[in-house]
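User: I'm writing a tutorial on reading structure tokens. Could you give me a worked example: one chain, its sequence, then its tokens, then a sentence or two explaining what the tokens reveal?
Assistant: Sure. Here is the example chain.
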Amino acid sequence: MSDMIENVLILQGGGSLGAFGCGVYKALASSNIKIDIIAGTSIGGLDASILAGSKDDHPEKTLEQFWLELAEGSSNLSSPFIDWLAAYPASTTPHSAITHIAQAKSILAFYGSGIYGNNKVFVPRWRPDYSFTDPQYFTPHKWTYLFDHSPLVKTLEKYVDFKKLQPDGNSNARLTITAVNVLTAEPLIFDSAKQQITPKHILATTAYPKYYFQWVEVEKGVYAWDGSLLSNTPLREVIDASPVNDKRIFLVENYPKNIDRLPDHLLEVDHRARDIMFCDKTLHSIQMSRAITSYLRLIDDLYEMLEKQFKSEKKEDKEKFEKISARYKKVSEEHGAEIKGVHYITRTEPFPYLYENADFSVDAIKNSIKDGELKTAQIIKDIHIR
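And here are its predicted structure tokens:
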């Protein structure tokens, strides 16, 4: 067990909900809490990459600027009637009406993204200009994706210094992002402490097939999709990557585990089912990590006792003890980290609706960032982190 405690930030996937993680990091930064490892998948992997490799000395500002640029570049449909209703003060509008307005605006934003894309991140494959570059443009029955998310690379180049995202690259934090092998369903883990993280890896972690994004060939013969298909909360990957140092975990939940009431209708049923599919499921990993730590402490005590009392001069006994010693050290080095605390930072869902993770409107993004800030500031206050 190590005397060092690493602060770890885990960022879930969730489309536009990733703006919540931006607010979380802003609050951590404003409280001078240094994050040692940032891990994420899907949009969480994208957030993590910007934070770890930010060109600016203030990653929280860089990430917020990125999200605001995305929001301003979104193609939202509009409805004069919805806009007229939304203009009324909340104090004079019934709660049910506010809910329906929020849902309607979210649906319009969803379809705006679906029809026109977002030039900063992804564009539809059926755009006329693609007829000159896409050999399958006129054979859509052969398509395996609908949206090209390679425009994300050009946007990232404004914010990320990729030279930082490599071993000894002086990154703002160690970066771990995840994907899944399309052919084998095996996890793919990209770790800046072990390899150069490139735009291709970020495209891989965000290549979500249910959004009809294209898989990415990260190396010859290895085709990757979004890591959230396997796990939307890459905590186990962090423990495996850094097994020695003790950890304090800040876990950002874009998809809440707990709700106060049952769904009222089919759309809410779908919404809740989606939340359950993508919510945090790392409780077993945390329990196992703590159990292994407890066992190692017991073994450590027994080992010290044996080492002090070992008096035999027999060669065979010495050899046996040396083998035991080697095995003990190997286990300790590979599984010695203790989780000192897990702090869940959960996004608020006052008006749950199915399309919220595709709402890139300016108001939705700003509100999500603010929600992340407020939730994190309260947690920091409650646990008295210094």
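What the tokens reveal: Residues 77-86 have pLDDT under 50 and may be disordered. The chain is about 45% helix and 15% strand.
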